[in-house]
Design a protein that fits this description.
By secondary structure, this protein is mostly helical. It has a single domain, classed as Four Helix Bundle (Hemerythrin (Met), subunit A), CATH 1.20.120. It has four helices and no strands. Helix 1 packs antiparallel against helix 3.
């Protein structure tokens, strides 16, 4: 990997970190709002049980999204740590020791493997 590619990937990691941090900040701000503010209801008492269920489901989906973004932020921070503290390990497949393609790193700059895992 060239120095120019490393600088590009560092910028991509910092860009992704800012994106994820902004999402988490919005999530934290929404979680501080009351349910009434979030749903736009005129009162704190739901008019129908389905409204309460929808509000609960929305809150659970937000929490799941927050967890996913928090994990992603951890992966990004770890990639930045590898880039700064052990640059010889950045962009190297942790399983095979082979270099990860730049095209993959450009899309997922915190990638630890050269291939996407089977789902």
């Amino acid at each position: 990997m060239t120095d120019e590619q490393r600088r590009h990937l560092e910028a991509r990691l910092l860009e992704e970190r800012a994106r994820v941090t902004a999402i988490l900040d919005r999530y934290r701000a929404r979680s501080r709002d009351t349910g009434q503010e979030q749903s736009g209801d005129l009162s704190q008492r739901p008019f129908h049980l389905a409204d309460e269920g929808t509000d609960t489901m929305d809150a659970e989906l937000d929490a799941m999204e927050g967890q996913r973004e928090t994990r992603e932020l951890g992966e990004i921070d770890d990639a930045l740590r590898r880039l700064y503290e052990a640059p010889e390990t950045f962009g190297v497949d942790e399983e095979t020791g082979r270099e990860i393609a730049f095209a993959r790193l450009d899309i997922v700059p915190w990638a630890r493997t050269a291939v996407t895992p089977d789902r």
